[in-house]
Model the fold of this input.
Amino acid sequence: MSDSRKTPTKTSTTDPDTTALPASGLIGSGMEGGLLDQARAYLSRVRGGDMGVLPALGGLVVLSILFTALSQYFLTERNIANLLTQAAPAVLLAMGLVFVILLGEIDLSAGSTSGVAMALFVVLSNPSGANLNWVLALIIALLTGVAVGLFIGFFVARVGIPSFVVTLGLFLGFQGLQLLIIGAGGLYRITQDPVIAIENGNLLAWQGWVMLAIVLVISFVTAFVDRRRRDRAGVPNRTYALVVIKLAAILVVGSVSVFLLNQNRGQVNYLNGKVVGGNIIEGVPIVVPFLLAILWLGTFVLDRTRYGRYLYAIGGNAEAARRAGVKVVGIKWTAFAICSTLAVVSGLFTASKIQSVDASFGNNTVLTGVAAAVVGGVSLFGGRGRLMHAAVGALVISVITNGLGLLNLGGGINLIVTGGVLILAATVDAVSRVRSGGSLIRT
Amino acid sequence: MDVPIIELTDVKKSFGPVSVLKGVSLKAYPGKVTALVGDNGAGKSTLIKGLAGVQPYDEGTVKFNGEVVHLTNPREASHLGIEVVYQDLALCDNLDIVQNMFLGREETKLGTFDEGEMERQASETLRSLSVRTVKSVRQRVSSLSGGQRQTVAIARSVLKAAKVVILDEPTAALGVAQTEQVLALVKRLAEQNVAVIMISHNLVDVFQVADFINVLYLGQMVAEIKTSDTTSDDVVGYITGSKTYGGAA
Done:
């Protein structure tokens, strides 16, 4: 509240702030200045408690270094590809949850929803079940997700029951429903090759490079369009160097990743320089472009459309949003539908990975998804967080599981470490908030 | 005097058996600040909620620019150009100034935000109100002081090209310097030919900016006075019911 000591605006000719105004007569936007100014502004934002994804990213790096030091298998092409496919369902589930968490709501039934939907899918599509066309079965499963989301949305937005309670009820009820659909002790194998390919297939080498090129082109075009719009409006742009740095970073990280993933990671037997057995496994896992596409689309909606902005607004102050003319009920409704649908897709990925669905499928995944979002820096109180945060958070949790698995440490240790990291992430967030002068209680 | 932009005649509102507004009339003129004062429970908020379309009146006529209108929901009021700046401000802490000012009416191109256009308009609006205390329009509202928040909330209504701005206790909970800033802002709002209706408990503030003072007492408008024709003591008398205006009663 430093400005309370300043002179009132009427005598503002002597106000130091006026001299800082740019010649254009516009109030600053924090986009002015060169690279150094931007770096300084960013640092001060971070120091001000706006850490975003930094702690999670730092955690990811530290854990990776740690596991690389402890296990010779961690930083191998095979394990990295394995890690990506292991993480994919959690990444997707966490991204879906972001939509409802941004509203300050929660969906505890996301995992059970994916379980029920995938149970429907296998029962409908399996030759020993209804033997329906698998695409049709998949559409039915996805629509189940939409319907469940709308059902939750109805009770939360219309009836006014806390989402925690509604989805806790569904979490319990759906486990029963799933048991009824599959039958006690039942297990269905996934038999459709395209479904198995999602988590087990790989892109051809050139397809991986094309994917990287598409990412670069999209990044460049969006940056270009943004800058042109700002130019037209006559407001300053961030320095061009930032665009170059961002693209260069994507290029370097992307190239290294694609290159490594394009190396053969299978067991091949040679005899006199000729391949005689084993199989060549190479290429970017097919699940990666799926995840990138959903990440991009979701981020686009959240950052650049009214729908996304209103999600943040409702999470920040629902009453203010309502008074501004935002249709709060409709937005809550659709957010739950998006979350449940993405949860079903996440379930599809899991089913593809483990190639079977049983009566307890998906039941214990939801809290991993919530933990991933929180570790990534998404606020459970709503209004703060991005899809990227949830994705990085899910990667952190997957790295823990993967790394401890390589060290032959059991599930007990894994859960303890994951829980510890979750509390650590929340603490970092809270402490940075206190240091920035805010309260531990989020408002 | 021109035609009042807002003219309420004999509006009534009851909640069950409780009659809150017992036939109230009110006029507001473009470019003038009309203060609405009265003790707690006098019916100020109910009067305002009717104008905002949040709680329609039971009886009485509302004229906007001389024409009878029916304000039955907030959108109609907003469509006419009536904006309310609520006491609790109704800003989203997690959004920045531009995002808050444009909430609900974002500028888009091809369905995506035109951030540059919004930023320029927000900046120009703040400058037109001579706002100098805001360093960056991309600051989050959570980082702003009470006076700055009030500024953003008022600028938001200006951005909407509001013809009537209703301020609910704009200086409550503000420090001395910030109160000065906000009152200066209220004056500039009126200079832009906006009709300002200001609810306040603080008579010092009222006498500083208001052109007219309207006093509500137990659901009735007991005084409508030019600020220059009255004194603080008289107004206190009207508010508490110990004096009657012009000996009419």
